[in-house]
């Protein structure tokens, strides 16, 4: 029982620090966020941050993982709503790119995230996304819908297109105006893997 209570307390501490870090990084950006201020906001000490995450960068990694995982979940829901398959794959990519309009996503995941944590392809959240894309593409391959190409390579490039499109939207001076350009280009590039052109919206092949 004591060990369970200790584990619960440790998990609560992590949740508090992640929530405080998420707010600080969204409001001020990673560089300007003060460790003393964010730990005080959580009612904790710097020692708690060091113990749980090593340093501010470690906390940033946890915050990015939380937000990016939620983004992937939301994108997958959009794919399911679109009916899965090819339409679902496009809907997932579009939903992910559209989230670049959200201020928290812009600053933490798409702008500060790569600058602080390095190549997004190495993030755990992006690797989980990659596996989901691979599964979808394998199903499409089994149905004979896509060209014969290495599935992992294809998944990495499609995910990279969506991520870089989102980064472009987030960094642009007029994100709402950039978004439709990014979405159109994503669909154009992604559709190149199909054996035949997809039917017009509302029609079936």
TrEMBL record:
Keywords: DNA-binding. Residues 34-53 bind DNA. It holds the Pfam family TetR_C_41. Residues 11-71 form the HTH tetR-type domain. InterPro entries: Homeodomain-like_sf, HTH-type_TetR-like_transc_reg, HTH_TetR, Rv0078-like_C. SUPFAM superfamilies: Homeodomain-like. PANTHER family: HTH-TYPE TRANSCRIPTIONAL REGULATOR RUTR, HTH-TYPE TRANSCRIPTIONAL REGULATOR UIDR. This is TetR/AcrR family transcriptional regulator. It comes from Paracoccus onchidii.
């Amino acid at each position: 029982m004591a060990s369970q209570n200790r584990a619960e307390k440790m998990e609560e501490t992590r949740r508090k620090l992640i929530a405080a870090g998420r707010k600080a990084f969204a409001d001020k950006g990673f560089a300007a966020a003060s460790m003393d201020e964010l730990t005080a906001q959580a009612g904790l000490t710097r020692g708690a941050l060091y113990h749980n995450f090593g340093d501010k960068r470690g906390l940033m990694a946890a915050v990015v993982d939380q937000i990016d995982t939620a983004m992937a979940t939301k994108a997958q829901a959009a794919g399911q709503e679109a009916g899965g398959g090819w339409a679902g794959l496009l809907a997932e990519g579009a939903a992910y790119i559209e989230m670049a309009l959200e201020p928290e996503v812009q600053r933490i995941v798409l702008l500060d995230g790569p600058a602080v944590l390095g190549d997004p392809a190495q993030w755990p959240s992006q690797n989980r996304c990659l596996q989901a894309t691979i599964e979808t593409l394998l199903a499409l391959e089994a149905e004979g819908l896509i060209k014969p190409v290495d599935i992992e390579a294809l998944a990495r490039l499609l995910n990279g297109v969506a991520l870089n499109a989102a980064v472009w939207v987030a960094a642009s001076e007029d994100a709402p105006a950039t978004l439709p350009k990014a979405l159109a280009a994503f669909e154009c590039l992604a559709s190149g893997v199909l054996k035949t052109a997809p039917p017009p919206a509302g029609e079936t092949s």
